[in-house]
Write a structure and sequence with these properties.
It is built from 8 helices and 8 strands. It is α+β, with helices and mostly antiparallel strands and 238 residues long.
């Protein structure tokens, strides 16, 4: 009995490459899933690597479509498990490979406002001015005003940069393909579940981030079905 349990809990490493149906192009952003809930995603070159229990099963998902499940014990050891999905490379969403425009826009914005982004307050030491009164220092007054203005502008520019990053990562194309929602429900979902810049950055990988969007969509659908009048056509049943 102990030997059987040990065999069941033994983990094996599976790796391979995912291709489109022509087998000429690799596919980044494909979900690599298992019955046990362990998962990962293919990298920018379409490669993946995952450790699963020997009694588990592995399957692949892309744009809501799943492949058949393969028992881990049937995967040949020391050989890559490559898969070809029924997707053409020209149908791959732009969001899978992070496009250059966002990086270029961000760099150009930083270059244009370099003095503001790099600005550090220049505090002047106080002192007497001609020995009058308590030592009013006009330079300090003007410098403090400049500091406040520059720091305020710096904060606004950083907030704008963060908003653009969220727009880039939480875009309508990606959310629609993960959730299957259509407008106007898609717009409602994106408004209610828009993550903050800090929250998006907290995800260790795209798999966890995409799972967050999927889980939110399931909650949203359950909420909508519960509150939507039953005597009206249901917009989620399209």
């Amino acid at each position: 009995m102990a030997a059987v349990q040990a065999q069941a809990t033994k983990a094996v490493e599976i790796s391979g490459t995912i291709f489109d149906k022509s087998r000429l192009f690799t596919m980044p952003g494909v979900s690599v899933l298992s019955n046990s809930g362990i998962g990962t995603m293919t990298d920018s070159a379409g490669h993946y690597r995952i450790r699963l229990p020997v009694d588990d099963s592995i399957y692949f998902s892309y744009l809501g479509r799943h492949t058949g499940k393969i028992a881990v014990r049937r995967v040949a050891p020391d050989y890559p498990l490559n898969m070809s999905l029924a997707v053409t490379v020209d149908s791959l969403p732009i969001v899978v490979v992070k496009p250059k425009p966002y990086r270029y826009d961000s760099l150009e914005n930083r270059d244009e406002y370099r003095k503001v982004f790099d600005y550090a307050p220049d505090y002047l030491a106080g002192g007497s001015s001609g020995g009058i009164g308590v030592g009013l220092n006009l330079d300090m007054i003007f410098n403090a005003r400049k500091n406040r203005q520059m720091l305020s502008l710096q904060r606004r520019l950083i907030e704008q940069e963060h908003d653009k990053y969220v727009d880039y990562r939480f875009n309508r194309t990606l959310v629609r393909r993960i959730t299957g929602l259509q407008r106007p429900l898609l717009d409602t979902f994106m408004r209610l579940y828009r993550p903050s810049y800090e929250y998006i950055r907290s995800f260790e990988n795209d798999y966890d981030y995409y799972k967050y969007i999927k889980d939110c969509s399931l909650s949203f659908r359950a909420y909508w079905r519960r509150d939507y009048p039953v005597d009206h056509p249901h917009p989620l049943e399209n």
